[in-house]
Amino acid sequence: MNSMVVSSCSLSPPPCCFFLSACKRKLSSVFLFLFPLEEKEEEEEEDEESAGKSLTDEEAYLRANSSSLRLHNRMFRITLYSSFQQMVTIAVVLYALLETADNWEGNSSIEKKGGTSWEVIQALHYIVSLIFFFEAGVKIMGAGPTAVSEKTGKETLVKWKPLDYFVNWENAVDFTILFFMSLNYISTWANTTLGDLTYDHIRVIRLFRLNRCVRYFRRNPEFKIILDGIGSGIASMGWVLVMLMIVMYIYAVLGTSLFYGLDPKNFRSLPYALNSGMGIATGSSWDEFLYATWYGCEHYGYPSPNDVDCPYRLNADGTKTYAKGNGVLSAIYVISMAFLVGNIMMSLFIGIITERMDQAYEAKETLKRKRIVNALRKTKGAIWESREKMNETLPEAAYTEVMDMMNLLSGSAQTQSMHEREAATENTWFQDLQVKLQKMTQNDFFEYFVMGVIVFSAILSGYSTQFLDYSNPDASPPEWTEILERIFIFTFMIEFLIKIIGLWDKERTYYTGEDAKWNMFDAATTLVGFFGMVFEDSGLGGGSIAGFSRIVRLLRLARLFRFFKVIPQLNLIAKSLVLGVKSLKYVGTLMCFIFYTWAIAGVMLFSDNDPFFMRTLPVAFYHLFRVSQLESWANIVQINLEGCDKNRWGVNDGGAAYVGLQSNSGIHADRVYECDRPKAQPFVGSLYFYSFVVMCGMVIISVFIGVIVNGMHAATAESKIEFEREKRKEIISEHYELPASKLESIRRVWKRINWAKAKTIKIHQVEKLMEQLGVGYVPGYLHKVVSYWKPPPEGNPSAKVNEIDYPDFILIVCLLERAA
């Protein structure tokens, strides 16, 4: 059919063919103006056109058909342009900002005010919508199977198939949103309605456009791995959710059958029993359900037993008989449900997420390791390219230090001159003093003394708090506490001076050495405490000195964190938290995105019915956080499912219970939000709140736990290795009586050799570095030295030991220096 049209136009072109050709040329020129082709692409098209001049008749026919793909192929290439993607990204960000501004003070707050602000926002909304329509049109015009060109190596459209656009679920979601937006625009211009589909519903559907933010998150490789881990975990949770729904349904049927007369507020029907079951499973006021079914509505949970609240049977003598509670049955029902659904099911969620996150964590760390090595290869690894490169890059002292060490490791006669040079060098009195101070700081008694002072200082700070008096700003603790505090401050100052004098050298070891972070931390807390005392004594700062002194005293408590350095168990916990937090930044970003999206949707859907919980974006955000913590969330759900004019019994009280709930909460006691526009939304409300509870109250919390658990596992494994290496390092240092300056010199060279920051390095890598620097070495010399204390690999006794770690490197240096 297409060939017939082409041939008919080529033989006797009718006016419609001229019109279509003109439109096609005009459209091509517009797209070329917006998204100009690169020079290489222009050359490719010219080559194709010039090649078409010498084609045979059969090839010309095929070329005629393929030329119809020119526009579609150009549309496909436009979707790959960074400018096109940046335009869509800007539109998404702009849309998020517009919705935030319009719902910050309530649903369509700026629209209700009108004026220039609303006209600007409405115009920007139209521009954003046009960009999304344009994006969909370009993608549909460029949809179809693709292939990589052998000539250019670029992806090219083979055949135009517009339905391929809808194969991608993200495109299908985008098109669905555009469809509902079109309905909204058409109904607005035609001044008609869409039945039950309101403007706010369409705005909520439009919010799904923010899922593009998740796509942008996935551009970060580490974030993509975390999201894939969460996605695979949610997919695996599907059957757990099915099991959870079945168990919840069984308990709801049992609850309705057993307790409808005892507690009609919570079990009067199956939907209410399901909602109450969610409350019991999540631990939200579960004791209320227990006591109401235990004692019956006549004695607990109901303000006054009457024929509306608490049902009864009328006897022949006119007396009323209320249902009597069954404590055993009630306890079995509530406790078993809390244990089975609330604990076991939640444990299944955590187990599934932990397994998936463990896999994602390993993949993330592998990818992160590759990125770090690639980055370091261009910086720290580049100085090993040649001796000239290293000489140009490193300072003279550092260059000499590295070359002397490489000569030592080479096993050549050059090591003798280095050893003789070191022996001939005499230390000055200051260097002798530094050696003594370094030995003092390395002594265990010195460290224990400092830690004891830290403990007593913290106890004193806690004791001094009981003398604070808000009504008397001049109140102060006893004088003896001030004297002790000053003694502690001078003690820390002396420790600081001992360390910084002992490590004062050209390499600034105090600030760059192995304990640089702890040294900086100690210096900050010590100097803040000392100068805080000086300012307080001198009276600088006027009336603000009292507040400054309190801040300084609080900062002194930070010294307690030094226990993390000394106690291995605390160090392990700290490392697990650090490793967990590094991954939690991605989970936290995703959680904030979910909160933001649901908060805007909550304001759009429920602010009219529930102005207390959902009136503005910040308030909705806060109460959604409360729901995610499963803290008294049942009231919020019930109000928006049934309307603010219904009480807990489902009776229309005109909003009296809603107003009473506000007074009981203690929030905004000076302002009461009346139930002016009640609106029950059972389906939309259930979908909104229960999806949020499952997503943020169960899944995301499970992800947090899984990340922390993975961090603990990784930190435990890493800490065991580091603890063993630290013990070996201490034993070697004590045996060879290495001063801190010598140990720091070895560490600096190790860091430069191990520029990739690996736990171990290969001996042949060290030999390769010697070759690159032009240092002559004895082949197999280092292997032989290491074999004296390190056994060969298991199962292969003839193999050479080829890996060394930092303590091994220290031992090698000590042995070779003594041998030289």
List keywords for this structure.
disordered N terminus; two-stranded antiparallel sheet; 820 residues; 71% helix; mainly alpha
Structure description:
There is one protein chain. With 820 residues, the chain is mainly alpha-helical. Helices cover 71% and strands 2% of the residues. It contains 37 helices and six strands. Strands 1-2 form a two-stranded antiparallel sheet. The longest helix is centred in the last third of the chain and has 55 residues, at 682-736. It is globular, with a radius of gyration of 37 Å. The N and C termini lie far apart (91 Å).
Could you say which structural class the secondary elements and strand pairing correspond to? mainly alpha
- Determine the fraction of residues in helical runs and give it as a percent range: over 70%
Low-confidence stretches: 1-20, 30-35, 37-64, 414-419
How much of the sequence is in beta strands? Answer: under 5%
The number of distinct helices, counting runs of at least 4 residues, comes to 37
> How far from one another are the termini?
91 Å
Mean pLDDT: 75
- Major sheet characteristics: 2 strands, antiparallel
Strand order of the largest sheet: 1-2
Oligomer: single chain
Question: What is the total tally of β strands?
Answer: 6
Shape: globular
Radius of gyration: 37 Å
